Amino acid sequence: MFHLQPAALARILGAAAGIAVGTAGRAQTADQIIAKARAYLGGDAALTAVQSVHFVGTMETQEMTADGLKPAKFAIEIIFQKPYQQRITKTSATIIETTGLDDLEAWQRIDDVTNPSRWRLSLLAPELVKKLRANTWENLNFFKGIERRGGRVEVLGPATVDGVATVKAAFIHGLGIVFNRYFDLATGRLVVTETEQGGRIKEEGEIMVNGLRFPRSVTTATKVTDAKNQVIDNAVVITFDRITLNEAFPDSYFDVPALSRPRAAPAPAAPAPAH
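The chain above was modelled as a monomer; its predicted structure follows.
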């Protein structure tokens, strides 16, 4: 969190404002917070109609090497489809890394771009499957209905984030899977999200798709340990070129790939103008 340090008079005025904000934050129920957030995004009917979201863009980050963190850039394609299907493909000049979720099964495949006969497939552990399922739900349900999957929302009260008066709500999917979200009290806009591992996710900019608001970019900041065993900050920035809603993807697109034979590495999706 950011802490403002104003002059004495401003501190007095700020304290009075803080009382009002705190009362407003506590007065809101989880349903009211969610309703305002969904209204900001585009409305209940349009959000409920979303069955799939398809993102295409670029990802910039830093990768660990023997000499420390080095800049890295990938083309990225992300697909979420109800109820619990997900496929994320990262493409660089040397590798294609694909992570898939098909309900209760999750997998990761790495293909060598320079030699399609070289590839590796791994099935992901149950704990990672649970996290991918929660992530898929979050990206398709827009805050509403978590109790139907055994989760709950807890209103944690007011907070000031980046100078914005917000209300904090925890979206709890189960043990160890929690998204703490801070919503602008005035508008319902999502200001920032924190994960249980200490990551901080911030959405910036705007792309309108079929009357719904989506971010132009998403930055995830986390702590990592470098080659010298020092804890340092690292960020992943995903910038979207195209977002498409309600395409119908076949179940086979999310299935665990066959182990019996290698496949040719697919070509990355071509960028296109945003809708």
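The longest strand covers residues 231-245.
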